[in-house]
Amino acid sequence: MFTGIVAAVGRITHVTPLGEGNESGVRVMIEAGDLPLDRARLGDSIAIQGACMTVVALHDKGFEVDISRESLNHTCRLDREGEVNLEHSLRLGDSLDGHLVSGHVDGIGRITAFEQIGESIDLRITVPAHLSKYLAYKGSITVDGVSLTVNRVVDQEDGSEIHINLIPHTVQVTSLRNLDVGEPVNLEVDMIARYVERMLR
User: Fold this and answer.
1) Which residues are 123's β-sheet partners?
2) Beta strands of 38-158 (E only): which ranges?
3) pTM
4) What are the C-alpha distances in Å from 77 to residues 27, 54, 184?
């Protein structure tokens, strides 16, 4: 379990195939940045760009995870070098400043706008049709591991477009600062919405 409050921005520094062919996964080495590793152990869960991964090796300034082909097929930008959002799993008694996040990516969105408006950024993302029913005005969504609030939902034929206001602090302390129009992002919808949909059905 996570909160969507990014603890640090790290960096994927090495990506090594775990086998041959298109069906193999990868081992990823990550520089942890300011993520405190004194509380990390082998087997712990750490969210990387919103995807829950298991620590398989620890180093002085970083760690490694194995990412299966199945996970790579349903996420984006975990198999290339670059900055990533990091968060330790939630412990009982920790502050819940974002919302309950499972670390299971539900789908891939795509940036349609990243524009400065006043002191903030107007972020717009197209969301696949199968996730659109879980979106609501003032509801929560996780984008690349960051807990964000939906300010507007515009339904379209092939899904929805959501509008999000990014305050300067969020831009400064997460990898969202690197986003550009057309790029993919990992999305996780609010788990409460999923359970409500299941019960109503």
Assistant:
1) 114, 164
2) 45-48, 51-58, 62-67, 82-88, 107-117, 120-128, 140-143, 146-149, 152-156
3) 0.94
4) 14, 17, 8
Per-residue pLDDT of the chain (201 residues; tens, 9 = 90+): 999 999 999 999 999 999 888 889 999 999 999 999 998 999 999 999 999 999 999 999 999 999 999 999 999 999 999 999 999 998 887 888 889 999 999 999 999 999 999 999 999 999 999 999 999 999 999 999 999 999 999 999 899 999 999 999 999 999 999 999 999 999 999 998 888 888 888
Contact 176, 164 (CB under 8 A): no
How far is Cα of residue 196 from the mean position of the Cα atoms in its chain? 23
Q: How many CA atoms lie within 13 A of 61 on its CB side?
A: 7
> 183 and 117 share a domain?
yes
Task: Tell me the residue range of the domain where 68 lies.
Answer: 8-88
Element (H, E) at 69: helix 69-73
Based on the domain organization, do 68 and 115 belong to the same domain?
Answer: no
- Report the distance separating Cα 53 and Cα 46, nearest Å: 5
Burial of 11 (0-12, 13-18, 19+ CB in 10 A): middle
